[in-house]
Amino acid sequence: MAAAHLPLLVISGPVGVGKTTVGNEVSTSLERRGVAHTFIDLDALAATYPRPPDDRFGNRL
């Protein structure tokens, strides 16, 4: 079976430049067009509750 070739968009940059905002807008635009996709915000992966007291920033995830 041949491997599938799928488009990938990576949005990167320093803290606070709007990566999440741009990602949300791209995701919304794709959704409006009926394009199947997944938006993964790496910062959101650390948004875990309850977070262990010794892992203040959720880095151990």
Which terms summarize this structure?
61 residues; mainly alpha; 1 helix; 23% helix
Task: Characterize the structure shown.
The protein has 61 residues and is mainly alpha-helical. The chain has a domain at 37-61. The chain has 1 helix and no strands. The protein is extended, with a radius of gyration of 15 Å. It starts with 18 loop residues before the first helix and ends in a 29-residue tail after the last helix. The relative contact order is 0.12.
Structure summary:
The chain is mainly α and 61 residues long. The protein has one helix at residues 19-32.
Layout of SSEs?
Layout: H1 19-32
| Average pLDDT, all residues | 88
Q: Which residues form runs of ≥5 with pLDDT under 50? A: none
Give me the Rg, rounded.
Answer: 15 Å
**How much strand content do the residues show?**
under 5%
Largest sheet: none
Morphology:
extended
